[in-house]
Design goal:
Structural class of chain B: mainly alpha
Number of helices of chain B: 14
Distance between the termini of chain B: 38 Å
Oligomer: heterodimer
Strand content of chain B: under 5%
Number of strands of chain B: 2
CATH class of one domain in chain A: Mainly Alpha
Distance between the termini of chain A: 27 Å
Order of helices and strands of chain A: HHHHHHHHHHHHHHHHHHHH
Helix content of chain A: over 70%
Strand content of chain A: under 5%
Structural class of chain A: mainly alpha
Largest sheet of chain B: 2 strands, antiparallel
CATH topology of chain B: MetI-like fold
Helix content of chain B: over 70%
Radius of gyration of chain B: 25 Å
Number of domains of chain B: 1
Radius of gyration of chain A: 25 Å
CATH architecture of chain B: Orthogonal Bundle
CATH architecture of one domain in chain A: Orthogonal Bundle
Largest interface: A-B, 105 and 103 residues
CATH class of chain B: Mainly Alpha
Number of strands of chain A: 0
């Protein structure tokens, strides 16, 4: 049964890219109809009801484990201080969500909105630039044979192993030497170069851009730049969207880099701001727990929307990146 | 391919190459260079500090630095427990998803991926508060069952962080393993069933060996991440600084040496050392697992 629905949606949506990862399964999409399904893979439930029930219980427990922190966070952000400290954490007690939201958005002159905008700026613009560079590089690596190609690709793969501290600390010194520390550039520039994006872009190019097509375009007299911008980029929309999404998530989640290169509050990301709020009690004795929790809930929302809206892209991204 | 065309192709990679030189090679070279110097105060500390070439002295100091070595050992030991546990849970869940009907599998796959959608720092904030004896629900829950647990006690901090990492990581790892499972030729199961193999036997003897590659890869990614762990202990330090010291993990030591102690040259040496250790660990793991396959 697992073959049917999943295959229909996966196969139709991204069969082209994920063909390698899903292999034989994608190739044998069974036609509609119960009888055919039964033939390809007998209903497991028919074999052992007890086993199915056992698996289902296990999955429900795992699902509850995955969800309860999020549930608690939602509940906690609807409580005032008294409720947060005294009522049962897993159920509602009074409705103070609006007060909490108001507090988050007005705290320190609405610095939270500023952080949100910063996170969008760094993740959005940085990933857009990074994706374009990565697509060009991946295309160059996959479809041209030039001296030094092997070296570039080795550098891409080798850099996966470089610890972030080894890069970030000297980068901080270099940036401070040219006056970029504590400016948005200190976040944006590192986002432009993302070896993992290049790697993905190369894999996608190999899967979607045939040599013959490029040859045909050249014979028709199209220049290399024109081919890239009006043919290759258009055919790579799915791959490009995946690369962009993964880079966006990466930058949105970044912590060590912003912690190192951003000093003033007005340039911080959401993560950095929430980290700072969360440490407030230790420094100043002020309890801002409900502020932190409501802020944390808000900071999840854009990511959740993005992931759900673009789920078919990141599903292929995750599996492709992992299996190739 | 025509010669000029090759160079045009190379031109597509030029922006990346330039960026790579400035954002990767130059900083690494700079770190290696800096790691061979030491800031020395002349006289009684009254004169200005001078930079002095000391060769590999910082590295020698790093290798004999008890705090640094302890932090590495701490993280390695933790990795040896947490990563196999997390991957085992992910594998079992992936096998379970593979064995239920597609409708059920689709729903649970999304459900189990919810933690992955949450940024690491926010996940740590949520769990730190769940563990908190003041606002978290886990302490009263423990009391209900007669446990008197304190998640911020020294003996409980690693299990607490381990649980957080497991919670955050199982969905992602499960998806990778699950997609590898989809590549197993279904005919194999039919053949095995005809031969009278039980579902459990099929899972252990056909499915698990088939997803070995995915397991090795997820383990490698987890090892690389674990040696660089920083966010979670940093967030825990926010609430329990007496348990999570500022030298808890290697990256925390490096960060403190650079930004709090102002000992940049030493921090540079430590980060190069960490990179080497990471490289060696990944290589050894890769060799170990690929030899077994032959």
């Amino acid at each position: 049964m697992a073959l049917t629905e999943n295959r229909k949606e996966d196969g139709a949506e991204n069969g082209r890219e994920s063909g390698g990862a899903n292999g034989t399964a994608t190739a044998t999409v069974p036609p509609r109809g119960r009888t055919v399904r039964r033939l390809t893979r007998p209903d497991p439930a028919a074999r052992s009801r007890g086993g199915q029930r056992f698996l289902l219980v296990g999955l429900v427990l795992a699902g509850a484990y995955s969800l309860f922190p999020v549930w608690w966070l939602i509940v906690a952000s609807t409580k005032d201080r008294v409720g947060l400290y005294q009522s049962n954490g897993l159920w509602f007690s009074g409705m103070h969500l609006w007060d909490n939201l108001h507090q988050v958005f007005t705290y320190e002159d609405g610095i939270f909105l500023r952080w949100t905008a910063n996170s969008f700026l760094y993740a959005g613009v940085g990933s857009l630039g990074g994706t374009l560079i990565a697509l060009a590089t991946g295309y160059g690596l996959a479809r041209f044979d030039f001296p030094g190609r092997g070296v570039v690709f080795a550098a891409v793969v080798g850099s996966f192993l470089i610890p972030i501290a080894l890069l970030t600390l000297p980068l901080y010194l270099l940036f401070s030497a040219i006056g970029l520390v504590d400016t948005p550039w200190a976040m944006l520039i590192p986002c432009l170069i993302n070896p993992f994006s290049v790697y993905l872009a190369k894999v996608y190019t190999e899967a979607t851009i045939p040599f013959e097509l490029l040859e045909a375009a050249r014979i028709d007299g199209a220049g290399e730049l024109r081919i890239f911008f009006s043919i290759v980029l258009r055919m790579m929309t799915t791959g490009g969207a995946t690369v962009f999404l993964l880079a966006f998530v990466n930058t949105w989640n970044a912590f060590f880099l912003p912690l190192t290169v951003l000093r003033g509050e007005e340039n911080w990301t959401l993560n950095l701001g929430l980290y700072n709020w969360s440490g407030k009690r230790l420094e100043s004795g002020i309890d801002v727990t409900s502020l932190v929790l409501t802020g944390a809930l808000l900071s999840i929302i854009p990511m959740a929307i993005m992931m759900v809206a673009m789920r078919r892209y990141w599903r292929t991204g995750v599996t492709l990146g992992a299996l190739k | 391919m025509i010669r000029s065309q090759r160079w045009k192709g190379a031109a597509f990679t030029v922006p990346f190459q330039l960026g790579f030189v400035f954002l990767y090679l130059l900083p690494i070279g700079y770190a290696v260079y800096q790691s061979m110097f030491l800031q020395k105060q002349s006289g009684l500390g009254l004169g200005s500090a001078t930079k002095e070439f000391v060769g590999l002295e910082n590295y020698g100091q790093g290798l004999t630095d008890a705090a640094f070595m302890t932090s590495i050992l701490r993280v390695v030991l933790f990795a040896c427990v947490q990563i196999p546990f997390m991957l085992l849970v992910s594998l079992v869940l992936a096998l379970a998803l593979d064995a239920v009907t597609s409708k059920v599998a689709g729903r649970f796959r999304i459900l189990l991926l919810v933690p992955y959608m949450i940024p690491g720092v926010v996940a740590a904030i949520v769990w730190v508060n769940l563990y908190s004896p003041e606002v978290g629900p886990l302490t009263p829950l423990g009391e209900l069952f007669g446990f008197d647990w304190n998640f911020f006690a020294p003996s409980m901090v690693w299990p607490a962080i381990g649980n957080l990492l497991t919670w955050h990581g199982i969905g992602y790892n499960m998806v990778i393993i699950y997609s590898a499972l989809q590549g197993v030729p279904r005919e194999l199961f039919e053949a095995a069933r005809l031969d009278g193999a039980s579902e459990l036997r099929i899972a252990l003897s056909i499915k698990v060996p088939f997803v070995r590659g995915a397991l090795v890869l997820t383990a490698l990614l987890s090892i690389i991440q674990m040696l660089q762990i920083f966010n979670e202990p940093a967030l825990f330090r926010n609430v329990t600084p007496q348990t999570v010291s500022d030298s808890f993990t290697p990256i925390m030591i490096i960060y403190n040496q650079a930004f709090n102690a102002g000992n940049y040259h030493y921090a540079a040496a430590l980060s190069v050392l960490l990179a080497l250790i990471l490289g060696v660990a990944s290589f050894l793991f890769y060799r170990l697992t690929s030899r077994e396959a032959d």
